[in-house]
Amino acid sequence: MRDIKLLECTLRDGTYVIDFMIDPDTVYAFASDLLHVGFEDVEVGHGLGLGAHRSYSAGFTDRELYERLAPLAESNRLYSFFIPYVGNLDDIKMARQNGLYGLRIGMEPAYLKEYMPIVEEAKKLGYFVALNIMKSYTVTPTGFGELAEMVKDVADVLYLVDSAGHILPGEAQNYIKAVHDKVGMIPLGYHGHNNLGLAVASALEVIDEGVEYVDTTLTGIGRSGGNVPTETMIAVLARKFGVTHYSDEFLLRTLKLARSFRDYILAKGKVLDIRSEDILFGYAGFHSSFEGLVRDFADRKGLDFHKVILDVSRKERVFLSKEILDSMIDDLEK
């Protein structure tokens, strides 16, 4: 079978639902369990990446976390996320000094050229660098191919990122085809959100087009509509390619760990069911990070929040602010 690498992201993307409040000892315990089950690539850290603890407290610092994880990082492939306008170069250096193997740099298409020096610096530090083009749906497949041309000789893998769970499976396939048309076969990954329930189907489509890396989380836990469920993806790949790697035992051990993590989340009083709003966000291509901003705006103006989501998303999907929303008020009121 093809070598499909599942990058297990529960201990990063999954922390959104508990307000990032997962202590270093618990991260260490679950990371150890994931590695023991057989996952070779595991992402850890604050949901918003390195440096985010300074603005979005997680109850601990990055240094405390990565020093705790250093014994695991010595002999395993641990990754962290980094957004250039959240963290800084010192954060990147600190994590590398504690043995972190991979850095997944996330940015919107509009910022790629501006922050390419960060990608280059991460490579100089010895990181395996994955470049995650957040909100990939804000460019066309052709535009995505042009972005691939910019980074093909720098990043180790380029990720198609469906941040709102908006891209349909056939559309995801078109993005990958566009990369191949522009630069040929390069290492590619897929990070999908499951707002419309299509993340696994999209993963299968892009795998058929040559994608090697798929991000997953236990039970699909993650921001907004969640992510590609790890255990589901294992079962689907075993059905598709046979059980030479994704064995029955591997699936059963993953299911047991997924139940354990789910119990941990529920014990914190959190709800894991998808909300109707998350489906709307997927339909509209609306990033959930703007939810509070738009709710406050709709309340102030006496507008229907759900209708505002649709109208705003047809005008702007990359960046929103109070000023941008206020500038749209005439059209929104109509």
Automatic annotation (TrEMBL):
SUPFAM superfamilies: Aldolase. The keyword Manganese applies. GO terms for biological process: L-leucine biosynthetic process. One of its GO terms (molecular function) is 2-isopropylmalate synthase activity. Residues 4-256 form the Pyruvate carboxyltransferase domain. Transmembrane segments: none annotated. Keywords: Manganese. This is Putative 4-hydroxy-2-oxovalerate aldolase. The lineage of its organism: Bacteria, Pseudomonadati, Thermodesulfobacteriota, Desulfovibrionia, Desulfovibrionales. The gene is nahM.
